[in-house]
Amino acid sequence: MKKTLIKKGAEADIYLTNWNNEKAIYKKREPKEYRNLILDIKLRKHRTIREAGIMHDVKLFGIHAPLVYFVDTKKTSILMQYIEGNLVKDLPDRKLVKICKEIGRIVGRMHKSGVMHGDLTTSNFIIQKDIIFLIDFGLSSRTRKIEDHAIDLRLFKEVLNSAHTAIMEQGWTNFLQGYKSIVGVARKNQVFSYVSIIEQRGRYATVV
Amino acid sequence: MLGLGIESTAHTFSCAVIEKKGTRSKILSDVRSIYQPPDGQGIHPREASRHHVKNAAIVLSECLQKAKVKVNDLDIISYAAGPGLGPCLRVGAVVARSLAFYYNIPIYPVNHAVGHIELGKMLTGAKKPLLLLVSGGHTMLLVFSLGKWRVFGETLDITIGQLLDQFGRFAGFASPCGKRIEELASKSCNYIALPYVVNGNDVSFSGLLSAAKLEISKGLEDVCFSLQETAFAMIGEATERALAFTREKELLVVGGVASNKRLAEILTSVCKRQDCKFFVCPGYYAGDCGSQISLTGLLESSVKNGVKIEDTFVKQSWRVDSVEIAY
To answer: What's this model's pTM, rounded to 2 decimal places?
Structure first.
């Protein structure tokens, strides 16, 4: 299999390759020399299995995600569909603000179906024409707990704040609007108030 | 310009004098006295503040002597106004106020975490780093954007320093316990599985602490080793995620835990993978010290005037991401 490295992610190396004459992505979790071997193998294996499983599941809820072609638990690699498009992270601010609403809807749909993503950053959304794909389910899990869903929201807020500072406020408002439209006001309020609880747990967040 | 910095946020009372000429700064002296709680116990805020009161004058005069300056020569005085332990913070603030008022010298309240960052930048020469602040009070990944340090990831409960200290105290070590744990860990390579929690760029250590305490009977060296391996791998992963996302080309590590060799090893490897330069604050200046405060005060004085005595304050909870940085 011929493959070209296109990104060295934090967790895995991403290669562009071919599968049945289609462009495909080969995602391989390489051993991390800095991590203890036992811990390393455990993490890589768990995450590969979970990622493939949940990436498949979310499509049943109407979320666009890459198709899974092949999973190798020994090599801890996944062969999946290549998604053409731009990272939401790289969009101009004006567009990003708008898209936050649709992202909110996608996240709402995912949560409503009992999945948390675990790494909800703007670099994990790909926009293809007017379809938004969600990728990278390595830290995802099946959960309906308010706290877990709040962790997703908080991370997205944190990323807006640190990487898209200028549009943070409007982007976040739009996100919540989109989220609310799917999960309903009551659930949105529950999750949202838990976000504040997590934030207050942050070091030196509450004034004494 | 000559600046005196006073640090008293936790167990360390320290004074330092820095001379700043244009963009170059030089540490003329940095004197510390560290409160030592009994073995197996943590910092008692009242006892620590008593230690500071007792030692303040000694540290201050030694610091001025070593720098060969008189109080009258000082252009500004800065003190760590937070975050930290209230009783301890007040000691530093009182010393700073007294000097500033009596000698009529401009006074600057400084954020302790910003102090760590600025001194780390000065000593390592890092220009625009992704910042990892690891200490007893903080575990944070920060990026500078639009006039503030923005939190990219942080601990959702206790800090790495608290994890090490609380585990160490449970095992009966003297605080701070990082060194001892590092020593014991280096004697083992037998990994005991412990909970590993990374949520995106955030980490959580409380479950790890409880689990490590429960495993202690399996052998102290093995548990120390496993605790370090797990906790530092978590920090390594969170850092790598932040580097991959921000595409920053520099990583700077500051704070007391920055002096841990194993952590440095892990982060070096992370940086190699992400093609990024690695900077670590030199050991002696990684922990709390007056130089951090003095330098930050001098930087602030380049863009604003000192505050009025009646407006000086201490703030136990003063988040680094709420500080406006104009210089």
So the answer is: 0.92
